[in-house]
């Protein structure tokens, strides 16, 4: 088994970063790369736990959680929007959920071209089992932080997300700039 990317720790750039990238900011690069590494590490650990317990991928249980948490049946499009995956991927995910007996698809009376997806009792029982397990994994992953540090982390992540949303609403940032190629 491959070691978690978390074992690589915080990303640090070389001491010549400012010379190589005069328009860059070393700490921004380190923070961005470390945030990606942390997120990837968390997802890998969640995937590992879900695969061990249910022999399915993370998106499958995420879709099941969305369906279980809905007020009623959902269309595949509504599920894919909430899970943030393409509709083609959602079709395969729903096939897995249905083959496990966790959901059923029925014709949509409001739209003959569509179906509605409903959770079964077995699907509810599965959600009742894995959702507390996911909370346990999350707690284990964050147990290195004090409650105050978790609150601070949420505040910092909120700032990152706010700025990311603002940047996403602006014109695309051109991928250009100055680089002084090092003599390595």
Spatial extent as radius of gyration: 21 Å
Structural class determined from secondary elements: mainly alpha
What string, H for helix and E for strand, traces the elements in order? HHHHHEEHH
Multimerization status: single chain
Mean pLDDT: 94
Give the secondary structure arrangement, pairings included.
Layout: H1 17-20, H2 26-54, H3 58-69, H4 76-83, H5 87-99, E1 103-108, E2 111-119, H6 121-142, H7 147-169
Antiparallel strand pairs: 1-2
Characterise this structure.
It contains 7 helices and 2 strands; from the N terminus they run αααααββαα. It has 184 residues and is mainly alpha-helical. Strands 1-2 form a two-stranded antiparallel sheet. A hairpin with a 2-residue loop joins β1 and β2.
Give a quick precis of the structure.
By secondary structure, the protein is mainly alpha-helical. The protein has helices at residues 17-20, 26-54, 58-69, 76-83, 87-99, 121-142, 147-169; strands spanning 103-108, 111-119.
Label this structure with key terms.
single chain, mainly alpha, Arc Repressor Mutant, subunit A, two-stranded antiparallel ribbon
